[in-house]
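In this supplementary section we document a worked example of the pipeline. Step one takes a protein sequence of length 266 as its only input; no multiple sequence alignment statistics are reported here. Step two produces a three-dimensional model, which step three serialises into structure tokens for compact storage. The input and output of this example are shown verbatim.
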Amino acid sequence: MSVLRRRIISGAVYGLVTLAVVYLGGAPFLAAVLAMALLAGREYQRMLVVGGYRPLYALQFGLTAFLLVGVVYLPLEAVVGGLALILVLSLAWQLTRTTEAEQPYVDWALSLAGALYVGWLSSHFLMLRDLPGGLGWTLLALSATWMCDSFAYIFGKAWGKRPFFPRVSPNKTWEGTVAGWLAGVGTSLVLGRVLSLSVLESLALGLAISLAATFGDLAESMIKRQMGVKDSGSLLPGHGGILDRVDSLLFVGVVVHYFVVWVLGI
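The serialised model returned by step three reads:
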């Protein structure tokens, strides 16, 4: 089976499952986002191991779960207080791991970064889905991101010549990137009408999503390049790992949530 065919089939299955849990919302959506974050976090940890580090599994998994569950069931004060307590206790614990052969502070910082990168950023999709009209906003965020990624991949493969960000991602081209941006903005314009957005609001949101998707992908590419790996995993044939598939969405969820809350005032 060709790479493109595997990519289409696995992408379709992933997309249908995602749309189903987004539609259901509530506990099924929380469970799906938590499972995604833990699987993506595991791939992040494996990359750290390849890079010569020793991730703190309990810290990263525990903090990821706390952040995701906390934004749904706990008041803000409890989330902030719990985060502070976890930071204090986990950093103090590193004193017991200090030897010449270890980098306890670096391992702690990278594990903490993984929980914030995957866990805290993905929690914004839970907050987005919980807003008034959250189903529509979430579907817009997903659809525009998927269209941006797909068109960037297709046009980049077929017509890409000029590197976009060669220091981090040598295969990403200006031709593919611009095609992805146009697809993301176009999707936002279409779905924005359904959500009663003005043309200007739809354009602004579509551009914000497209830029966030592009730099979310580049951020993971930066991590992979530094750790010396090609893909974060192999769970999704043709796409790589879970983190390879959701890297764009981690940035997009944040951008769309705060656009809806701060700009639209919803």
